[in-house]
Amino acid sequence: MQQFQDLINILGQELALFTELRDLLTGELKFIKTFDADKLAANVKAKQTLELRLKILEQARLETIAALSQGLGLDGQEVTLKDLAQHAPSGQREKIVKLQKVFKRLADEVKNKVETNARLVDSSLRLIYNLQRIIINAVEEPTTYQRAGQINGPDVVVARTKRRI
Questions:
Q1: Ordered domains of the chain (ranges, CATH)
Q2: Stated pTM of the model
Q3: Which of 17, 84, 111, 131 is most buried by its number of CB atoms within 10 A?
C-alpha cells in the first residue's frame, strides 16, 4: 500500500532530522561549557531552522496517518504507529516497528541532552548573577582595609593634587 510507504519515508526523514537535533544538542553542550556565545547563537538558529523542517514533516505525517486510519477504519486521533504496523504489509510492518524503536531511543537521548543543557545553562546564569552581585557589592561598599578618614574614588587624586600645589 503506497500510503504505508509514504509514512515510512516521512518517518525516515523525521528520524534524520532528530539525529541532526541530537548532534546539535551535543555541540551546544560544548559551547555552553566554553561560554562561546557566537557559536551558541549559531547553534540556536540551526535548531530553530530544524524545528521548522520538523513541523512540516509532522504535518505530512499527521495527514498520512489520518488517511491511513480512515482507510483502515481506525480512529485517526488515537492510532499509534504500533496500531498501523499491525495493518501494514509484512515488509513495511518491520520497517515501521524498527523506526518506532529507533525513534523512542532517539527521543530519550534528545530529552536527556535538553535537560542536561538546560541545567548547565541555569547553573551558568546563577553563577553570572552571583558574580555580578559580588562585583556590585565590591564597588558600592568600601573595603574593611581602609584607614580611618581616607577618601575613596576618583576624587582622591584631585584632592591630593590640589593640596600639593
A1: 2-142 (1.20.58)
A2: 0.70
A3: 84
CA–CA separation, 32 and 40 (whole Å): 7
For the chain, 165 residues long, give each residue's pLDDT as a single digit of tens: 788 899 999 999 999 999 999 999 999 988 888 888 899 899 999 999 999 999 999 999 999 998 888 888 887 778 888 888 888 888 899 999 999 999 999 999 999 999 999 998 898 889 888 888 888 887 776 655 555 555 555 544 444 444 444
Record the cell numbers describing residue 30, joined without a space: 560544548
Neighbours of 24 (CB within 10 A): 16
Amino acid type, 67: A
Pair 66, 76: CB distance under 8 Å: yes
Coil, strand, or helix at residue 143? coil
- Give the DSSP H or E segment for 79: none
Total residue count of the chain as it appears in this document: 165
Contact 92, 86 (CB under 8 A): no
Distance CA 140, CA 129 (A): 16
